[in-house]
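Q: Structure for this?
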Amino acid sequence: SQQGEEDPQALSIQEGENATMNCSYKTSINNLQWYRQNSGRGLVHLILIRSNEREKHSGRLRVTLDTSKKSSSLLITASRAADTASYFCATDGNQFYFGTGTSLTVIP
Amino acid sequence: DAGVTQSPTHLIKTRGQQVTLRCSPKSGHDTVSWYQQALGQGPQFIFQYYEEEERQRGNFPDRFSGHQFPNYSSELNVNALLLGDSALYLCASSLWGRWAYGYTFGSGTRLTVV
């Protein structure tokens, strides 16, 4: 069964705007990762945040983690058309449980 | 590029048939995990192989079986195909015990059961 749930399910923004998507999970974790998937192809690892971290940055990506609320958010700043994809959070273990995904559309 | 390679990319099978999907992990990786992704859903964990043994299994029936070879490549077999088995099957490789480094995914095999 899937551990996480992303919110919103779909998001449409103009190029240059920021996109924020959220992930909630059910059990305690050691780390949480975000992945991107283009058009039903393979997933690409974006960023990992450990349970003892509250915020992490990588380029235009900013991830926050609130373990007390069992939630994480992914912020993509200055979005580009190429950011159009589905985004999944995955919680750890020696297998990853993926959420249901947020479908992001960036309109040029 | 020494990423994860999956074959075939697309496959059409008839209900009741059997199918074998193949995966070559990223160079240096020793662990292979398989996921099923239905249209519009997130990937669902099927099972994971390390040292040629199934180490963990998700909530999938015995019709789903696998194998890992000494070169770390892996196969996913599905018997008695059902229409509901139509999905994108993703292979992901990693280093055993190094989950924090994330998985490297292949582009998947699109299986259609008719």
